[in-house]
Design goal:
With 167 residues, this protein is of the alpha+beta class. It has nine helices and five strands, in the order ααααββββαααααβ. The longest helix is centred in the N-terminal third of the chain and has 7 residues.
Length: 167
């Protein structure tokens, strides 16, 4: 298993996912996103699951819904099929520099990739700061315990619009 698969494999415990012994401490403060290794890149993901919410564009603005990808595990907020997500979900988006910089912004405003690319630091609840994967859930910044529903069978996303402050 390569580092990328190890970091986001739902079979790996969340605390194992955030062990940073293979990366330089506070690498996110020393490197631009373009300079990060695959392992560093994957560690930036806080595991909130918000990028897995369905979104629609209305009048040039991205609006979030409380409908989520059917493959999102609501307890861990990780993708159940991460290594095969692009095969099973053709419109799944890869979080790369293009996606991060896309206008209008479709990533949540708490997304570490977006924050760092726009000159902000990681929030105090981020697992790389706390050393614990659960800190994103404890801070209420993930989809865990939120009112979300699976996208299966939904076509009228306009009826599921949400206005959560952290999006």
């Amino acid at each position: 298993m390569n580092n990328k698969e190890y970091m986001l494999d739902p079979g790996i415990t969340p605390n194992e996912r955030f062990k940073t012994s293979v990366v330089e401490p506070e690498f996110w403060r020393k490197k631009k996103l373009e300079q990060m290794t695959k392992t560093e890149w994957e560690l930036l993901c806080d595991g909130c699951g918000k990028c897995c919410l369905n979104k629609i564009e209305i009048k040039g603005k991205i609006k979030f819904t409380n409908t989520r990808c059917r493959f999102l595990d609501c307890q861990s907020c990780l993708c159940k099929i991460y290594p095969h997500r692009f095969e099973k979900v053709p419109d799944c988006r890869d979080i790369d520099l293009v996606a991060i910089r896309e206008k209008p912004r479709w990533l949540p405003k708490t997304c570490a990739y977006w924050l760092l690319d726009n000159g902000f630091d990681l929030p105090p609840w981020h697992p790389l700061i706390t050393g614990r994967a659960a800190s994103v859930h404890e801070a209420g910044m993930s989809l865990k315990n939120r009112n979300t529903i699976s996208e299966s069978g939904i076509s009228d996303y306009e009826n599921y619009l949400i206005d959560w402050e952290d999006l």
